[in-house]
Amino acid sequence: MVSVVRGVLKVINEKGVGGFIKHLREEGYTKCLLDGNLLQTKIHNIGATLIGVDKFGNQYYEKLDVQYGRHRWVEYAEKGRYNASQVPPEWHGWLHYVTDHTGDELLMLKPKRYGVEHRENFSGEGDAYIYHSKGHALNPGQMDWTRYQPWQPAKS
């Protein structure tokens, strides 16, 4: 909480009160009042440094005056539906402290013929992407359970 207040005061000192209010509007703080997670991220962004933006529009931040392990984070481009699979691999390494090179630096080193393009995981998004086992009632190719015969003990 102290770092948030320190960040707010820093921005007010740099831009003035009018500039601070304009900054709040431009960054979308007024639109995120109904989403608690987004509001918490936006408040955490005050005083942070924007490190980069990936090809999907996700923004990556760093704030070095907070606890190690919590000083790098992402603000997802899709505000209504977000999950960790929306982070491409080149930024995943930076976000989880595997490397200090940002995603933009790693993209320059990546060969052009390397693998396939990153896509987010759509598991749980509509019936087309949900896996149902063969015995599940919603699976169109259900197993035929009639071929199994119940065991009958021999009468002695």
From TrEMBL:
Subcellular location, record wording: Mitochondrion inner membrane
InterPro entries recorded: NDUFA12 (IPR007763)
Domain of life the protein comes from: Eukaryota
Pfam families, sorted: NDUFA12 (PF05071)
Keywords: Electron transport, Membrane, Mitochondrion, Mitochondrion inner membrane, Respiratory chain, Transport
Predominant location category: mitochondrion
Gene Ontology terms describing biological process: response to oxidative stress
Function of the molecule: Accessory subunit of the mitochondrial membrane respiratory chain NADH dehydrogenase (Complex I), that is believed not to be involved in catalysis. Complex I functions in the transfer of electrons from NADH to the respiratory chain. The immediate electron acceptor for the enzyme is believed to be ubiquinone.
Family indicated by similarity: Belongs to the complex I NDUFA12 subunit family.
Protein name as annotated: NADH dehydrogenase [ubiquinone] 1 alpha subcomplex subunit 12
Taxonomic source organism: Musa balbisiana
